[in-house]
Amino acid sequence: MKSRAGAAIGGAFAVGLLAILGWAGFAPIDKPASREEVFEIPQGTWARRMAGDLVDILPNEIRLTLGVNDVLLLRNLDDVPQTFGPALMMPGQSFRLPFEVASEYQFACTAHASGQMTVIVYPEPSTPWRRIAWRVREQWSKLKA
Amino acid sequence: MTSRPTTTRRNFQHPKGRRAVLGLLCAIGLATLSASAGAAAPALKAGVFDPPRVAPDFSLQGSGGAPLKLSDYRGRVVLLGFGFTSCPDVCPTTLSVLAAARKKLGAAASDAQVIYLTVDPERDTAARMKQYLGTFDPTFVGGTGTVDQMAAVRKDYGIQAEKKVFGNNYMVAHSSYVYLIDRKGALRALMPYGHTPDDYVHDLRVLLSE
């Protein structure tokens, strides 16, 4: 009796896992309305820095996915020029950088203590395995946040 | 049912009403035109500045021996890069890509000028830059100056350059992207390192067609 119950539970678990994997691999990705990943330097950032406040503007690592969010949009809303990622931007200026190749990109960036900013661009989740990997990454980043 | 056309006609015939309708039609026409122009403008492969600013001018020593001023190149599309002649990897790659892009562009390349400014003015003389750049494309123009002059230009363009000393020698770690400056002298875009000649050709065609 015990072994039958165990087998039933194991079978149900396997079916459930297959169902989840099937959904993760074959269900279409919900693409956002815009492919832009937006980061802004708020007004007053320079003043806050001058006052000794270590303002964190950009994450050290930005992860993008081709076909989902593959455009980096940086905006300088501050009153002074800012070097943001690779670009020197004047007040009120924005910089829109599209990515077409999955790779890891290193940019010099004075907004970071390391002086480096990394942009990781993942391939388009166009196959079942890539969709599964994309969903796992998404869930993982949500959990970390 | 009958009052609406009457009211409409009366308003249209009234000078003020007619002006209002004409104004509205003009506004709709302009909005349609600007929307279609915006939709038709092809996106660049490079990162785009919005709004673009005027590319800061500079007056340096050109590799050809004559003074080098950016503003002298108004009317042409300028590809502005920063590097140094002793660079082992990034600069040779970038310059090879730019040379290949110019070749692919064909006759239109005569309106595209590559300007390469040194981040190592202590070693890069005008003559050395001419010899170095000429190995990639004889039309490339180099620029050098005093340490202070070059630092000021780098600051204007947000270029990072840091000397790394190795024994008796040194290298310069530097920003590796190329600026795209349009015919009017506006700093339109920034092409990160790693893009192909075809990407440059695509963007040059867009900017040259303006």
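qc> Residues 78 and 113 of chain B are 5 Å apart (CA to CA).
qc> done
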